[in-house]
């Protein structure tokens, strides 16, 4: 059967959820072959095998911790040559998009970024069929496009929360991949790492539930009501640009056109009007709940459930209710 190469995103061997979603999509196109690199790569094998990887290629060379992107690109190139896949799937992180773009250039292939779904084509990789159809949400979510790569082996980056995580055990074990590394002089060296402050909350782009606050929250201190609800639900915290520009919450939590794109199961927009640039980052959420004191706020046009009220009253009541269940 045709093989689909999947680049694994993991932290010291703990596989991130978007990679498991990629395996679900990859199984629609063929047999997933996972590539894990860097410290802990070998430890990913069990999880990847449980979610459908028929092979797990690993390389733990120290260069992965020393340079940005290029060693991973070298590993992906070597895996591409070894496997001969019908498609390559990469998580749509900043690093993933750069690695994917460079791989497409190296292999002379077409690239499609930020897919929200993938449908199988009728290609077995021999060049006479048609590759997968890639679905994207474009122009701030105003249009859905369906396209396919017409040259080379498609390289596709996929946004988090685009597919369910499914178990499909295979019994695959880690296999060492021989990587041909390029000259490190061409790569950016990592000089320092600043560990992210641990909030204990899930990563915004990957979270199943996001509670976001906007200008209606009123101040940095008042974001405590957003955080309290987020903690009661095991959610990540998001913010509108108005809240971020006011200095109430860090830019790394901004949702929207110039922030992060999220697509959780549940998105709670509190004190957010629903400007097009905010919608661009959240309107593919499965269920949207809006809390706003203005019944005419545009966010209600998009919301599945709406509460007209003051968030400073509604959110603490909701949090209290959840915490006492
Ligand atoms: P407002 O539009 O001011 O809305 C506040 C809402 O809170 C109102 O609806 C009000 O009724 C409600 N409210 C007030 N008090 C309460 C209360 N006590 N309880 C309940 N409700 C209350 N925006 C983004 O969010 N993300 C982006 O990435 C982004 N990128 C942009 C890029 C460009 C190029 C441009 C031009 C704009 C961008 N914006 C972005 C800004 C966007 O246009 C809006 O200005 C912004 O989203 C508004 O944020 P807001 O909804 O929090 O504030």
Automatic annotation (TrEMBL):
SMART domains linked: ETF
A Pfam family assignment: ETF
Record domain Electron transfer flavoprotein alpha/beta-subunit N-terminal: where: 4-194
Keywords: Electron transport, FAD, Flavoprotein, Transport
Cofactor(s) of this protein: FAD
Domain of life: Bacteria
Presence of the UniProt keyword Electron transport in the record: yes
Entry-linked InterPro entries: DHS-like_NAD/FAD-binding_dom, ETF_a/b_N, ETF_a/FixB, ETF_asu_C, ETF_asu_C_CS, Rossmann-like_a/b/a_fold
PANTHER family cross-referenced by the UniProt entry: ELECTRON TRANSFER FLAVOPROTEIN ALPHA, ELECTRON TRANSFER FLAVOPROTEIN SUBUNIT ALPHA, MITOCHONDRIAL
Family according to the record: Belongs to the ETF alpha-subunit/FixB family.
Function: The electron transfer flavoprotein serves as a specific electron acceptor for other dehydrogenases. It transfers the electrons to the main respiratory chain via ETF-ubiquinone oxidoreductase (ETF dehydrogenase).
Quaternary structure annotation from Swiss-Prot or TrEMBL: Heterodimer of an alpha and a beta subunit.
Protein name (record): Electron transfer flavoprotein subunit alpha/FixB family protein
Species this chain originates from: Streptomyces yaizuensis
């Amino acid at each position: 059967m045709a093989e689909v190469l999947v680049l694994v995103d993991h932290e010291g061997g703990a596989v991130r959820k978007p990679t498991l979603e990629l395996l679900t999509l990859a199984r629609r196109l063929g047999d997933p072959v996972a590539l894990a690199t860097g410290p802990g790569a070998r430890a990913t094998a069990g999880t990847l095998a449980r979610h459908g990887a028929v092979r797990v290629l690993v390389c733990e060379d120290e260069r992965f911790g020393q340079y940005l992107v290029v060693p991973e690109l070298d590993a992906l190139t070597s895996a591409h040559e070894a496997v001969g896949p019908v498609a390559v799937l990469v998580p749509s992180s900043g690093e993933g998009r750069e690695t994917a773009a460079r791989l497409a250039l190296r292999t002379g292939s077409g690239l499609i970024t930020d897919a929200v779904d993938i449908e199988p084509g009728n290609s077995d990789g021999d060049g006479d069929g048609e590759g997968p159809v890639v679905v994207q949400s474009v122009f701030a979510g105003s249009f859905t496009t369906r396209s396919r790569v017409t040259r080379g082996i498609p390289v596709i980056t996929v946004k988090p929360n685009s597919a369910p995580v499914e178990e499909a055990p295979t019994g695959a074990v880690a296999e060492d991949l021989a990587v041909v590394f390029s000259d490190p002089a061409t790569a950016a060296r990592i000089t320092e790492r600043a560990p992210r402050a641990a909030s204990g909350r899930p990563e915004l782009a990957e979270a199943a539930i996001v509670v976001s606050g906007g200008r209606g929250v009123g101040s940095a201190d008042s974001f405590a009501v957003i955080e309290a609800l987020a903690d009661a639900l095991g959610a990540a915290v998001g913010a509108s640009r108005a809240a971020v520009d006011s200095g109430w919450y860090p830019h790394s939590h901004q949702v929207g056109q110039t922030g992060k794109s999220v697509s959780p199961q549940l998105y709670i927009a509190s004190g957010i009007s629903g400007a097009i640039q905010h919608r661009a980052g959240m309107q593919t959420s499965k269920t949207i709940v809006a809390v706003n004191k203005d019944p005419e706020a545009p966010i209600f046009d998009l919301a599945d459930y709406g509460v007209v009220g003051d968030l400073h009253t509604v959110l603490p009541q909701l949090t209290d209710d959840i915490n006492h269940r």
